[in-house]
Specification:
The protein is an all-alpha fold. 26% of the residues lie in helices and 0% in strands. It contains 2 helices and no strands. The two termini are 22 Å apart.
């Protein structure tokens, strides 16, 4: 399903980045609220999610 979505979105002129989160070391949210304060949108946990914040921040989802 992901491959089909990616192919169709790219054929419509969009850039699509996919991430296999099952193969990443991403921890569950601690609800510490660091991301809403000192973290400026990033989590206090330094796991593989850190490398994905750039993709999320730059995503054009409008």
């Amino acid at each position: 399903m992901i491959k089909t979505f990616k192919t169709e979105a790219e054929s419509a002129g969009h850039t699509v980045n996919t991430v296999d989160v099952c193969r990443k070391n991403i921890h569950a949210c601690l609800a510490c609220e660091y991301c809403h304060g000192k973290g400026d949108g990033e989590c206090s946990q330094k796991d593989d999610m850190s490398e994905k914040y750039v993709l999320l921040r730059d995503a054009d989802t409008e």
